[in-house]
Amino acid sequence: MDGLYSPSWALNELRRSSSAVSEPGKLCVGKQDNNHRKNSFENPNFDDGFSFVKLLKECAKKKDVCKGVRLHAYITQGGILEKNPYIASSLINMYAKCGMLSKAREVHDELRVRKLDSWNALIGGLAQQGQGQEALNCFEHMKCEGLSPDFITYISILKASGVIECLSMGQQIHEEIVGRSLLGRSVLLGTTLVGMYAKCGEHDKAYQVLEELPIRNVFSWNALIGGYAEWEQGQKAFVCFKCMQGEGLSPDAVTFTCILNVCSSIVAIGIAEEIHKEISSRGLLEKDVLLGNALVDMYVKCGMLSKAQKVHDEHFSRNVVTWNALISGYAQQEQGHKALNCFEQMQRKGLSPDAITYVCILKACGSIGTLYKGEQIHDEIVNRGLLENNVVLATALVDMYAKCGALVKAHSGFEEIRVR
After folding, report:
1. Is there a contact between 138 and 126 (Cβ–Cβ < 8 Å)?
2. CA end-to-end distance (rounded Å), the chain
3. For the purposes of burial, counting CB atoms within 10 Å of the CB of 129, is it exposed (0-12), middle (13-18) or buried (19 or more)?
4. Cβ-contact 260, 275 below 8 angstroms
5. What pTM value is reported for the model?
6. What share of the chain is helix, strand, coil (3-state, %, to 5)?
7. What residues have CB less than 8 Å from 282, skipping those under 6 apart?
8. Which of 246, 248, 315 is nearest to 279 (CA)?
9. For each successive 10 residues of the chain (420 residues), what is the average pLDDT?
């Protein structure tokens, strides 16, 4: 039967996957191996690890959990999960990348023999999803099973330590890395170590580690600059930005995003405009939506709404965050009509407002006293179920009614928040 988890479906996927082998620039295999693959495709119990690993990586990249679940079912039915450790780690990684951490842990826990690859997949997934403490717990469990960390393990644990600002664990890992003479052998490991100290607010130590790295690249500098930006140490971020360029390294979109965030926090208009020119000359705005958002947000926070609008209009890839930055700017400057105009344009473009959009637009409604529009927005919010457990949005709603003179509705909304 050609059902949801049938062998025929899996075999078709494997055939499709292997067809890339003969394409130019793809991995080539020998004639004998090709014959083996051809014969194996005719066998419903086909257990080619290479093909399954490739398919699971594709699912992880596209976050296609439906296809990943079907592959998992076929792998389980064929009893091949334990035969190839890379299949197990790829399966765990796929679930983690798709945000299904409990499923990733379930696959890992059910393995009869847990190897370093499967632990790395689980720890890395937890760290990437912001579950820093869980990642550290798994790390300790892994060591109890007698496994020694490798570069990948250390990188994930340093990320986890940075996420929860666990400096003591980060320092312990730093000592282990130095003791095993690993730091000079991986730029990525050194960069992650810089990032861990920066996220923990230990910027002097982060800079010291950066200085001691035998090879520094733009990612190493970004880790430090991003740390300064996050902790609102604008002047130090600018100094690092200049030092990086002095080493002949060209800033990328991440660097510029961090520096624009710094510019908005200290209102450094001159520097920001120079960076804007460089970004435009390199055509980066068309390629990176986050960078465009940061540029709009910077001009808004510096009170330059006309420039923010211009960048917004020229920004090819606009998302909800881009619109939110502009709507928020108009609302804060009490230009409610312009904020409402942007809100309506955004909806006409097919973008769905989020809670932040609604908070901003309620503020705009209150500033110009448009009760009718505010009530429309209220209905939208209720229909989408966004008021549940969102005190900020509920407070914005109360504030809007109060400013529009609808005190009975404002009091009713206030009582609901108090009960909540």
Report:
1. yes
2. 53
3. middle
4. yes
5. 0.80
6. 75, 0, 25
7. none
8. 315
9. 49 53 35 40 48 90 92 86 85 94 94 93 95 96 96 97 96 96 92 96 96 93 94 91 94 95 83 92 88 92 92 86 94 94 95 96 96 95 90 94 93 74
